[in-house]
Amino acid sequence: MATLEELHEEASGCTRCGLAKGRTNVVFGTGGPSARLMLVGEGPGHDEDLAGEPFVGRSGRLLEVLVRQEVGLERSECYIANVVKCRPPGNRDPLPDEIEACSPFLDAQIDLVAPAVVVTLGNFAARTLLRTKERISDLRGRCYPFRGGHLVPTFHPAAALRGGGTVVAQMRADLVRARMILGGGPC
Length: 187
Ligand code: SF4
Prior knowledge:
With 187 residues, the chain is α/β, with parallel strands linked by helices. It has one domain (4-182): Uracil-DNA glycosylase-like domain (Uracil-DNA Glycosylase, subunit E, 3-Layer(aba) Sandwich), CATH 3.40.470. The chain has eight helices and six strands. Strands 1-3-2-4-6-5 form a six-stranded mixed β-sheet, sandwiched between helices. Helix 3 (58-71) packs across helix 7 (157-163) and helix 7 runs antiparallel to helix 8 (165-182). It is globular and about 40 Å long. 42% of the residues are buried. Iron/sulfur cluster binds next to helix 4. Iron/sulfur cluster binds at residues 11, 14-17, 19-20, 26, 84-86, 98, 101-102.
């Protein structure tokens, strides 16, 4: 199997889907290569496309605070990636063929990092990894067995920025669930 560095290199020149045309940078993923917690979002936004790093804008700052406060981990202690590695134009939702084209990268990242817990952020990451069409509001609040570890779905931090206190409180509860599992608690 390729290493994370080799996969990053491959993604940097990838033209497997139409999102290659509009990108500034491929946003492959960052963090500890053996992180016990992996955070998976939807796709890069404007700031991420420019920086080449996931979750660097306002959403990222909120996510960092919530993970630090509820899980007790710093950003550098987690591995962070998105379902699609190139920015959808105008921040539109990624299309099914784009998700399918990019999924081998995320699958390989999960296999290589082998986190104990994957926290998905928003509809697309949860639906892609759990292979379901259910909405995040129905999926969250539970934990799912996932590739030898566990998956905890929660909202995207952008939804928390829009939705305010209720969404933030639900994200906090989901992250507490992740912390308990990381500490050896039941799913
Ligand atoms: Fe390749 Fe993924 Fe970028 Fe599409 S989104 S061009 S599959 S890296």
